[in-house]
Each structure stands twice: as structure tokens, then as C-alpha cells.
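ok trying this again, last paste got cut off
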Amino acid sequence: MRCSPAGAATDHNAAALLIPPPPAGNHRPSWRHCDLTATTPTALAEAAALLPSGPQLWLSFSHLWLLAPFLSTLADHHPEALNGLRGIVACSSSSVVTKRFAWNPYDRALVKRLEGARLQLEQACLGLGVPACILAPTMIHGHCGDTSDRNVEALRRILRRLPLLPLPRHTGLRQPIAAGDLVAVALDRLKRLGSEAGSDGAAEGLVCQLLLGGDEQLSYRALLERIQTIDPGAARCRLIPLPNRLFQALAAPLLLMSPRHYEAVLRLSADLAGFATVADLLDRDARPFHPGPWL
């Protein structure tokens, strides 16, 4: 199974991919694009008309808080369009766990939004009797056309810009996952939902949330050093380790300027890893973290 270029969304806030299971034989499944922000009566009627009458599976890489209300609203107004729905794979974020106890307003609002969307999706799926798998990845990295991630790419830009970068001496673990690996896991889960449709296993635990990351866990400092080995421009930045308490004291002024960024600095010393690996989920050999390539 693959996503065709025609199905790729230019706005990740507003699109999902829908795919009916392939019929018997060598026919390829077809992908259909769906605008999750279009919830007017006319738009919902058009979306319902475009859905296939036979079995269908939904795959969404958009924000969970867009998918959940769309599905709920469509189920309320056009339930007949979802008679063939056999399963949903959606994306959330590991932030729902790693930032659960955050005290800055931005992160608290994010966790509340993600958790609220999960509950709304769960209620909609329970009402429809449809299983769903919510993937909650950590630190996605990679490129798709002109679009790049805001994690590893952002760190690379910082390293290219600064001659020196202070860091706490002891940094926490990270588990970056390549965008392509996330897609592979999503398609694997989608295929499983399609094959289990109608079975007793599909009915048990209709909605599950899967925390996942890449195959390699490495410290935050090691992650930066790995980026430097790939990009000569980033390699010019010198990493300066400081005692953790001194580093936190020097970062204290951030608390007044931006509580969100101050808390992000404090998380440099925290372990944000230990999630399911792509290798285990896909039963393949482990692959090390490899940033880039960059042009």
C-alpha cells in the first residue's frame, strides 16, 4: 500500500487520506483526499457522497483535534456513509504523556486538546463500532518535498547559527523517529485493522493509543553530535557542557520571558524515550538514527 502524490495534502492541518481495502486479486487500493475542516452541511454531504459504498479504512496524519470532530459530525449527519468503515489509524503525539504534568499554559492546553480529541474519537468509534489505533510518536524527523520537520531540522539550524551552545552535562534520552518509519507503522496498523475487520479481536478494545519512537535511544547531546556529523555547517558549533544546576540557574531568566521555553530547557535533562520501537512493531532489524540528508 502506498500514498499517491495526488493524495498528499498541502496543509497538514486540514487533510486526511481514506483508503478502501483492496479487492481480491492484484488491484491496488485507491486513495481519496478529505478536507477535515469542511464541516458545513454542504461540505459534509459532498464528503459523504465521495465515500465508497463498500469497505473503507481511514488514515489520518492531520491533527487529532480535526479528525475527531469531523468523524463525530459526519456520523451524526450522514451515518449511512460510514456503514462500510472498518477501521481508523490516526496520529497524536507523545506530548500527551511527556507533557502531562507541564505547568506552562501552552503545554497544558496542548495536552488537554490532545486528550479531548482522543476521547471524542473514542466516543465516535464506540458509537460506530469501529476500531481505531492512535499513534503517538515522539520527535518526528524527515522531509517531504519542500516541507521539513520542526524537531531535528530546528536543532540543525540552531547549530549552524551559533558558535557555542551551552548544554547540561547530563542530558536526557531521546528516541527520534523518521517520518518514513511512522508511515510504515501506520500502513501496517491499517492493514491489520482491515484483515481483522469483523473478528472478535477487532471488537476488543476498540480504540488503542500506541506510543512509539525510532529504534535508537540516544542522549540529547549525542543527538546533536549526530547532526553535526552529517552537516559540516552545524559541526562548527561547539557544545559546552555545564553542571546541570548551573545550566538551570543560567536559564532562569527565561521563566519571566517565556515559561514555555524555560520548561523546554528543563526537559533537556529528562528522559523522553522508552517507547515502542519501529523494529519491534514491524518485526525488522533495528536502524540507527540518521538525520538528513540536507541540500
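PB: full thing came through this time. The CA atoms of residues 3 and 72 lie 25 Å apart.
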